[in-house]
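hey so u asked for the seq, here:
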Amino acid sequence: MSEALNEAAQGAHPAPSHEAVRGGPVPAPGRTPAPAPVPSPFAGVLDSAAGGLSRGLARITGTTVGRYQAAVVRIGISLTWLLFLLREWPHRHELYGPDGAWSWDLADRLVAGNHAFTLLLWGRADVWFEVVYTGAILASVMLLLGWRTRTASLLFMIGVLSLQNRSVFVGDGGDNVIHLMAIYLVVTRCGQVWSLDSRRRARGREGDGAGIALWIVLGLMLAVAQLLGRTGLTWTDGLLPWLGWTPFLWGFLLLQAVWWAVRRYAPGEPRTVLDILANILHAAGLLVIVVEVCLIYSTAGWYKVQGSRWQDGTALYYPLHLDDFSPWPGLSHAMAASGLMVMVITYGTVIVQVAFPFTLFNRRVKNVLLALMMVEHASIAVVLGLPFFSLAMIAADAVFLPTGFLRWAGDRVARPLRRGGGAGAAADGAGEPADARARDAEDTDDAEKAKDAERPKEAPARAVAGPRGPGPDGEPAPSNLVV
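ran it, structure tokens below
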């Protein structure tokens, strides 16, 4: 009897459907329910973009990105220029001297028209030439070792521009790369690692007496040159159409003075603000170097595509038979005798140069092409006898090397020093505090970072980096130009 009453009650009051329970529309009897709306493929795109932009800005402002890449470009470019100056020491007067093939008067007329900068036109005496040439060598050594890197980068740029703008027809293509990189390095923090400056900071020595002396000497020399009205010291039409060399040089010295004063008397928030601005300027300079290298390869590749000899695969054959580009005639003739080798190298060069800028979005393919280009330039140095062009291009290419590889290579080079000198040599070989090394782990592998971001928040961390204090230069923890 009770079962019958229960069945009757259920028939009179049927159980509500899931849609009714959830508050959704209940379709009329005999009608098909409406399909659920398709989710938008753009849902969350703005939030993801905003989050990525926020993380990128935090990284650029809070850390010195690409510090190892900047350091290897600094070492490579300064070493290439130093070796060139030393090799040309017996011929320096013929190349850049007052009585050289490109006469002093011709150089003066050219500089008056293009507003280039060179110290060699400040005087025609042989003594002045020797001072400038020797100074360029010393500036190269300073930048190579990373001693007072900010001042050394400015002196290096002045030395490069002074010699190259004096005789514009001296060079083999690598001089253009050195010319540009010398300018770009001025705005980068290229002495954060692998430098005497980083070793000094790792030892806790913040005194900068030698740096202050350098700034005072440079300021006095610039003031005297300004009063004497030397060539090139203009207020406009210099480094840029609206920026002359006078405001640029004085502005650099002024910034150095402000940096020293803030570090000494206001190490708190003002120092943090200056570090953020320096990090932004450094990232911009590194980006310009990346874009410059991509432009070099893309323009070279697309111009080759338009050449008939490159189209038929015989372009390599002709320079191999030129005496000026055959330091090893036997090797050159052996390569030219193989039609298959000539064709493969000719077409391969074009393909690699055209494709490289498009491979920056794929890390593995980019690294393969980067290795091929470096091997190509090393071959050019041996086969065609252009060592300084090849060294300059390899140094510029190094901006694309992975951080993990650079740190591994640096450790391999420093290991004998650490083994021979004990703990003190270990600090010197590292050239950076332990917290800076932990912070550089963010740059080692993009794929690993992506995997970490995809892990659930409850998953335990793989490693503990420890507290992140100020960086090696007191930085806060993460929260074609014509002159």
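The mean pLDDT is 81. The two ends are 105 Å apart (CA to CA).
lmk if thats what u needed
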